[in-house]
Design goal:
3 helices, alpha+beta, elongated, STM4215-like, 5-stranded mixed beta sheet
Length: 142
C-alpha cells in the first residue's frame, strides 16, 4: 500500500459523503466550504519477510463558508465526518481491499476551523517475495 492510496481513499470518501471540495495541496485555492487533508505523521518500519508497519496520523480540516459566526456549521461538519466512518460500531476507512480501523479519533476547533484527527496503524507487505515454484526448477552447476 502506497502513501497516496490512503489520501485518495480518504479524499473520495469525504467527497462522496459531503459533496464538498477536498484538497491536499494548496489550501488557499479551495472554494469554501471545503475540507483540507493534512498528514501530520507518516512512518514506515520495516521487518523481515517483506513486512512493514505503517503509522499515519491525519488531520482533516473543515473550512467553513464564512470566517465569523460559524460555530454551528463547524460542529455539524465534524459530526458528519465522525458519522461518515461509522461501520457496525467501528470507525473504518476502506483503502484498496483493506478495512482500516481509525484510532485515537479526536476533534477540536481552532481559529474557526474544525479539525477531525485520527491515526491509522497497520501491517503491510513490501517488495517482491521469492517465487519458490520458479526456484524449485533451478539447477546448481559444479
Amino acid at each position: 500500500m502506497e502513501f497516496m492510496d490512503f489520501i485518495k481513499a480518504l479524499s473520495k470518501k469525504i467527497y462522496d459523503f459531503t459533496d464538498k471540495e477536498v484538497g491536499i495541496d494548496n489550501i488557499n485555492a479551495l472554494t469554501r466550504p471545503c475540507y483540507y487533508i493534512q498528514v501530520i505523521d507518516y512512518k514506515n518500519e520495516f521487518f523481515a519477510n517483506y513486512k512493514k508497519r505503517i503509522f499515519i496520523s491525519v488531520d482533516i480540516m473543515y473550512i467553513p463558508e464564512n470566517d465569523e459566526n460559524n460555530t454551528t456549521e463547524v460542529y455539524k461538519a465534524l459530526d458528519e465526518l465522525d458519522n461518515m466512518f461509522e461501520t457496525k460500531g467501528n470507525k473504518i476507512l476502506k483503502v484498496k481491499d483493506r478495512n482500516l480501523t481509525l484510532k485515537n479519533e479526536r476533534t477540536k476547533v481552532v481559529d474557526g476551523l474544525g479539525h477531525y484527527m485520527f491515526d491509522l496503524d497497520l501491517f503491510d507487505m513490501y517488495g517482491v517475495p521469492f517465487n519458490y515454484k520458479t526456484m524449485k526448477n533451478l539447477k546448481v552447476k559444479n
